[in-house]
Amino acid sequence: MLNNRILTFLELCRTRSFTQTADSLCITQPAVSQQLKHLEEYYGVKLYQYNNRSFHLTDAGERLYHFALAAKIDSDLVYQGLQQYSHSVSPLRIGVEDSAGESFFPRALTAFLKDNFSLRTTLTVTNSSELQQMMQDGEIDFAISDQRFSGISYDCIPLFQTDVTCVCGPEHPLAGKTLPIEELLEETLVLRPAGYPAYHGLNDCLQQYNCSIHRFQALLEINSFASSKQVLHQNVGIGFFYRCLVHQDLKTGYLSEIKISTPASYCNVYIYYFIKKHLSSSPEEEEFFHFCKAFFAGLDTAAKTPGLRKRS
User: Fold this and answer.
1) Which residues are CB-contacts of 309 (< 8 A; sequence separation ≥ 6)?
2) Looking at residues 273-284, what average pLDDT do you find?
3) For 160-282, where are the alpha helices, taking DSSP H only?
4) Spatial distance between the Cα atoms of 74 and 80, rounded to a whole number of angstroms
5) 210: left (phi over 0), alpha (psi -120 to 50) or beta
6) Is the entire prediction scored with pTM above 0.85?
7) By CB distance 3.0 to 4.6 Å, which of 5, 229, 264, 279 could disulfide with 35?
């Protein structure tokens, strides 16, 4: 367990504001300053500089920040590991990539919680880079994403495999047709903005058809998956998505599929499950993991579900 002065220091490093730190910790601003002063006196170094309302760590402050953050993560892991010996129920802290969080994953979580309604659960829906950072900072216990996390501190388990499909609105002139990709190039392509992993993933997929994003007549970049589907439903343009993301929309007729006759190379992707290595899992986490395996194995995708290995 870390003392309050270290925790206040970490929060100040996060907010870089004495006012915001005081509000976050429900203490006064002078109390924040006093705790930082005690730390500087204890270590005998200057930890920060605050000039013109700008907060900067000194070299010593940077070193303490990294030590303190590592200690906090270790402390959190020890706490989580010891919960298996208590009678309390461990919370589930889940992180999901945003397009999955706006499509199929809420159905999986809802189905799980119907039989586990007493669990305290938090769900964070954000991009893959933020999920990886949250796992590194100990803010979530596991994540579901289509992007591989870098580093050796994660176990990466493929949950299932899905293909990429072309979709449009139900009243679009191309709805339900089978066409070579060359006949789609005069359409407006609805996609994530440049810089998003999905943008580069789509370009990689199109290259399997000897095509690219920039060969389309017009581009409509939208940073929300849900908004993209709404635009497509109004018959504005076409889009390429993982089939698992639009499976329900195709099933209900909210969107329609355009089948591509142009031969393509292998263009399927894995959806991954990430968990910290050496993290002792609670019974609730183990149950959720095995539920995910069963749920995603039954998810209607074009590709075969890969073999799944159990966590050690």
Assistant:
1) 157
2) 68
3) 197-207, 225-233, 243-252
4) 10
5) left
6) no
7) 5
